[in-house]
Write a sequence for this structure.
């Protein structure tokens, strides 16, 4: 009897102890996960450098130290992952996507739900895409929620957004996205819409300057100048969808900050390069995937234009248009196809990887992404083969880590 009492008392104490620990766990932050040392991989830093036998320490979602194997000090008790024979590169950043419209092979405005967006972000994560920018075709507040909540709640992918872009009424993007942007007819409307975007704290302003082969009105110079002026007054940059060389030049003279397509109606000329040289921060996302599928007579010119921009040292960033009208719905996969097309356009594999990591992260002002360096986000891809030798090797993914956590990969 006495023995039983003792046992019961002990059991109660254990139960109380468990409850107490449980209460503590709920009230105090969880202890940081143990540090992990990744050793032996060829490391593509993202800034052009390569470390052949690297070691790096991941702790609390960030890179605690990065260096050469044997010279990086691991914290006591750290776990070790042997990556000998593998290649590690930074996770990708896509500066031009259209989220929310594609589901089960359909392309519809009513698909724009949190579930659709979560599915797309899981796809991006599975292919090693750490951040995406939604380029002006959002509906409701969903993308703001995704941007502002912890990325761990949606696959670890960082979201940036222009929310709703500006175009003439019933113009701009192709249906079903056409109803999303502001339709502007006057400078006053354009300025008012930009002030609303600033109040919503968008990450950039998107405009469409394209008549879609004469089928819709084009945003006029007066309206895009008012848009750019008002955006700059509100400390926002403006990124333009364009199709023609002439529009690119006039937008540069009007203060545009970036282009989400490369002109393909005419060859890049010296006048354009001179305007770009005066504005070295201006970038292009190359958006090659859609045209690569259509492959009309513009395709060779598009590749030549990118080659010329690249040779002139113009900033080139990954931007696929995935989710939009022309680029389809293979989120994540398309970014790797885009890397192949960049190399077809004359970028070296190292330049293509730089465009898809460091430059794209800089364009979106995501200083924690884009390179594998001390104090940056531990967001990287582990590959079975070296993409500097063959760019398609970026597709030979064995693991993806975003913000220090291995991604459970689910692929379309
Ligand atoms: Zn687009």
């Amino acid at each position: 009897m006495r023995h039983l009492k003792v046992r019961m008392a002990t059991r109660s104490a254990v139960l109380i102890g468990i409850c107490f620990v449980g209460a503590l766990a709920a009230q105090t932050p969880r202890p940081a996960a143990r540090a992990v040392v990744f050793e032996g991989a060829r490391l593509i830093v993202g800034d052009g450098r390569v470390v052949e036998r690297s070691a790096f320490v991941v702790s609390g979602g960030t890179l605690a130290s990065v260096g050469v194997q044997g010279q990086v000090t691991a914290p006591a008790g750290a776990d070790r992952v042997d990556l000998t024979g593998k290649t590690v590169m930074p996770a990708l950043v896509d500066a031009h996507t259209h989220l929310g419209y594609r589901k089960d092979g359909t392309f519809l405005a009513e698909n724009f739900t949190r579930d659709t967006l979560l599915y797309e972000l899981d796809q991006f994560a599975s292919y090693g895409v750490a951040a995406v920018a939604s380029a002006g075709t959002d509906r409701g507040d969903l993308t703001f929620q995704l941007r502002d909540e912890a990325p761990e709640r949606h696959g670890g992918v960082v979201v940036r957004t222009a929310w709703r872009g500006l175009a003439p009424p019933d113009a701009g993007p192709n249906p079903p996205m056409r109803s999303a942007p502001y339709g502007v007819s006057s400078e006053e409307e354009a300025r008012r819409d930009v002030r609303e975007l600033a109040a919503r704290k968008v990450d950039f302003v998107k405009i469409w300057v394209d008549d879609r082969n004469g089928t819709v009105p084009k945003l006029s110079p007066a309206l895009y100048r008012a848009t750019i002026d008002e955006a700059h007054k509100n400390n926002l940059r403006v990124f333009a969808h364009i199709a023609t060389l002439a529009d690119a030049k006039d937008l540069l003279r009007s203060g545009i900050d970036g282009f989400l397509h490369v002109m393909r109606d005419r060859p890049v000329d010296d006048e354009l390069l001179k305007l770009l040289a005066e504005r070295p921060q201006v970038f292009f996302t190359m958006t090659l995937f859609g045209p690569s599928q259509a492959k009309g007579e513009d395709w060779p010119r598009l590749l030549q234009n990118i080659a010329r921009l690249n040779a002139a040292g113009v900033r080139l960033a990954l931007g696929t248009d995935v989710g939009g009208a022309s680029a389809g719905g293979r989120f994540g996969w398309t970014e790797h196809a885009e890397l192949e097309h960049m190399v077809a356009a004359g970028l070296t594999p190292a330049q293509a990887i730089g465009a898809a990591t460091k430059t794209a992260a800089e364009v979106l002002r995501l200083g924690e992404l884009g390179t594998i360096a001390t104090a940056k986000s531990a967001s990287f891809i582990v590959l079975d083969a070296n993409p500097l030798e063959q760019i398609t090797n970026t597709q030979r993914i064995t693991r993806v880590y975003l913000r220090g956590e291995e991604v459970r990969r689910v692929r379309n």
